[in-house]
Amino acid sequence: MAEEPKETKPGFQNPVAGFGVTFKAMFKKRLTEQYPEQQKTTAPRFHGRHQLNRHPDGLEKCVGCELCAWACPADAIYVEGADNTDEERYSPGERYGRVYQINYARCILCGLCIEACPTRALTMTNEFELADSSRANLIYTKEQLLAGLEEGMVDSPHAIYPGTDEQDYYRGLVTEAAPGTERQVAFSKGEVPQEAATTFGEDEPASEKVIGR
Ligand code: SF4
Ligand code: SF4
């Protein structure tokens, strides 16, 4: 049996119905966000740029284990661990993350690396403005990812709090740097002791000033 033709509105009603939609929209709450002039607050657990955290005395929590890199589905993390020494100590334990990079051209901000980190060294901030026109700039280095210094902290490398061990740090027994704690020379980063710099002159390149290392 042939289908009955559907009843249609008279031709002049259709434009009027269209204006009805326009009028309704005029009185609705505006959803347009004036970004970047007006920044919107993200949800507290928003997945933004990563951060490498420090212990309360300023030593680094990262132990260079690479578990975050292995957990990453996008292969966005590159880690190189190294041994701490008494003369150049970055973390309370045996190892630290000498090189740490996250490639934000690859990262999908899924947070799996955060779950994999055994020391809570790696967490995510709410910072989302990561866009850049250069691929090289999208590779964040350890220096960019490392948390800033808070009150009571001394920048790494420096000695462990006297009389404590690595376990004490994770038990929360170290709450600030010991009085008199001084930053050590970062030999692995090409720094030189002050006296060596004076001997060789200020205009010499830092890499050539390193002696016996
Ligand atoms: S958030 Fe996800 S994609 Fe980004 S570095 Fe971590 S594991 Fe990799
Ligand atoms: S951030 Fe965590 S998981 Fe990644 S290397 Fe450092 S300690 Fe290991």
Automatic annotation (TrEMBL):
Binds 2 [4Fe-4S] clusters per subunit. It is found in: Cell membrane. [4Fe-4S] cluster 2 binds at residues 72, 107, 110, 113. The lineage of its organism: Bacteria, Bacillati, Actinomycetota, Actinomycetes, Kitasatosporales. Keywords: 4Fe-4S, Cell membrane, Iron, Iron-sulfur, Membrane, Metal-binding, NAD, Oxidoreductase, Quinone, Repeat, Translocase, Ubiquinone. NDH-1 is composed of 14 different subunits. Subunits NuoA, H, J, K, L, M, N constitute the membrane sector of the complex. It is a peripheral membrane protein. The keyword Oxidoreductase applies. One of its GO terms (biological process) is aerobic respiration. Belongs to the complex I 23 kDa subunit family. PANTHER family: NADH DEHYDROGENASE [UBIQUINONE] IRON-SULFUR PROTEIN 8, MITOCHONDRIAL, NADH DEHYDROGENASE UBIQUINONE IRON-SULFUR PROTEIN 8, MITOCHONDRIAL. GO terms for molecular function: 4 iron, 4 sulfur cluster binding; iron ion binding; NADH dehydrogenase (quinone) (non-electrogenic) activity; quinone binding. Residues 189-213 are annotated as: Disordered. NDH-1 shuttles electrons from NADH, via FMN and iron-sulfur (Fe-S) centers, to quinones in the respiratory chain. The immediate electron acceptor for the enzyme in this species is believed to be ubiquinone. Couples the redox reaction to proton translocation (for every two electrons transferred, four hydrogen ions are translocated across the cytoplasmic membrane), and thus conserves the redox energy in a proton gradient. This is NADH-quinone oxidoreductase subunit I. It catalyses: a quinone + NADH + 5 H(+)(in) = a quinol + NAD(+) + 4 H(+)(out). It is an enzyme of class 7 (translocase). Its main location: membrane. Residues 52-82, 98-127 form the 4Fe-4S ferredoxin-type domain. The keyword Translocase applies. Its cofactor is [4Fe-4S] cluster. GO terms for cellular component: plasma membrane. It holds the Pfam family Fer4_7. Its EC number is 7.1.1.-. [4Fe-4S] cluster 1 binds at residues 62, 65, 68, 117.
